[in-house]
Write a structure and sequence with these properties.
It is a single chain. By secondary structure, the chain is α+β, with helices and mostly antiparallel strands. It has two domains: 157 residues, 2-Layer Sandwich (Ribosomal Protein S5, domain 2), CATH 3.30.230.10; 149 residues, 2-Layer Sandwich (Alpha-Beta Plaits), CATH 3.30.70. The chain is 40% helix and 23% strand. It has a five-stranded mixed beta sheet with strand order 4-5-3-1-12, covered by helices on one side. The protein has a four-stranded antiparallel beta sheet with strand order 9-10-8-11. The protein has a three-stranded antiparallel beta sheet with strand order 2-6-7, with helices on both faces. Strand 6 and strand 7 form a beta hairpin. The chain binds alpha-D-galactopyranose. Alpha-D-galactopyranose (GLA) binds next to helix 4. Alpha-D-galactopyranose binds next to helix 4.
Length: 331
């Protein structure tokens, strides 16, 4: 039930939640594994213009109202008072590019819907609300990585999160490298992808099924968790061993391509191009089935790299240097 509230704070109130790019730890967050995402300086801005009355959001994203209702339902189910409000939502994130535009939307909504009635939720509880709202709105049984990254981001850092214990810490990004995100231009929506099927296959494998598919899914996740640990070790030793990072990212991409079967020919092409054009490390990022690759590129090469990879790609790509930014907050 939506409770009308009177505004305690002057309006408009503006909330911000970033998208993320995942450095490594893919498809590990729904089996208690490790992830290492980076919050970006691209995200969702939500401006509350009226408090009380029905919950109504205006956005160019046709799904925003559905997400808002899902977040409100999730909060109500957890016993939190839910604010009726009107808000306008704008985003600087490309939709369907694998940069968690929907998680950023969910986090911005969860933040606004709790802050307006004066509730303060701990970071990861807020992330859980947004994660479950996403499943409620779309049916996608996603993990907690994207929402957690959106909340826990810190400039210049990645977030190492253990999705079992929910313990996390910041890990500094390598000096002398730019974080480049190349969008393959292949759009996908997770609810129309094999995301839920992959999760079922993995769970079957973890429960002991011995068929080749289930075994390959488990092999990806076990090796990927080890790769996250290894990347963190490399990032914490100075100077950073770029060759080692490159090898781990290559293995991660191969594992997603062969064992987890979530890459696409376009993502494979971009990863090959990235190494050929001087990236220290590159792999597909996010759920796959389209979307983006992430690359660590020596800073002095980064501007040329973004132009060159777009020119060399067979499709229509967009490449940008990503900025590791702070997490969701009221502006
Ligand atoms: C999507 C999901 C995340 C995670 C990734 C794959 O982004 O929302 O929870 O599972 O895919 O690593």
């Amino acid at each position: 039930m939506i409770t009308p509230m009177s505004a305690a704070e002057p309006l408009p109130r503006t909330f911000w939640a970033p998208g993320r790019v995942n450095l490594i730890g893919e498809h590990t967050d729904y089996s208690g594994g490790l992830v290492l995402p980076v919050a970006l300086d691209l995200g969702v801005t939500l401006r509350v213009t009226q408090v009380g009355g029905p919950l109504r959001v205006t956005s160019s994203d046709g799904d925003a109202q559905r997400y808002a209702e899902a977040v409100a339902a999730e909060l109500a189910e957890r016993g939190f008072p839910v604010a009726g409000l009107e808000a306008t939502i704008t985003t600087t994130l490309p939709i369907g590019a694998g940069l968690s535009s929907s998680a950023a939307l969910g986090v911005a909504l969860a933040l606004a819907l709790t802050a307006v009635p004066g509730e303060v939720l701990g970071g990861l509880e807020l992330a859980e609300v947004a994660q479950h709202a996403e499943t409620r709105a779309t049916g996608v049984p996603c993990g907690i990585m994207d929402q957690a990254a959106s909340i826990l981001g810190r400039p210049g850092h990645a977030v190492l999160l253990d999705t079992e214990s929910l313990r996390w810490e910041h890990v500094r990004l390598p000096a002398g490298h730019a974080l480049v995100v190349v969008d393959s231009g292949v759009r996908r929506r997770l609810e129309q992808s094999a995301y839920a099927t992959r999760r079922e296959e993995l769970e079957r494998g973890l429960a002991g099924a011995g068929d080749p598919v289930a075994r390959r899914r488990v092999r990806h996740v076990e090796s990927e968790n080890e790769r996250v640990r290894e990347v963190v070790r490399v990032l914490r030793s100075e100077p950073v061993d770029a060759d080692r990072l490159g090898k781990i990212f290559r293995d991660a991409h191969e594992s997603l391509r062969v064992d987890f079967e979530v890459s696409t020919p376009e993502l494979d092409e971009l990863v090959e191009l990235a190494y050929g054009l001087g990236a220290s490390a590159a792999r597909m990022t996010g759920a796959g089935f389209g979307g983006s690759i992430v690359a660590l590129v020596p800073s002095e090469r980064a501007a040329r790299f973004t132009d060159e990879i777009v020119a060399a790609y067979s499709g229509s790509a967009t490449a940008r240097v990503g900025v590791a930014a702070g997490g969701a907050r009221e502006l």
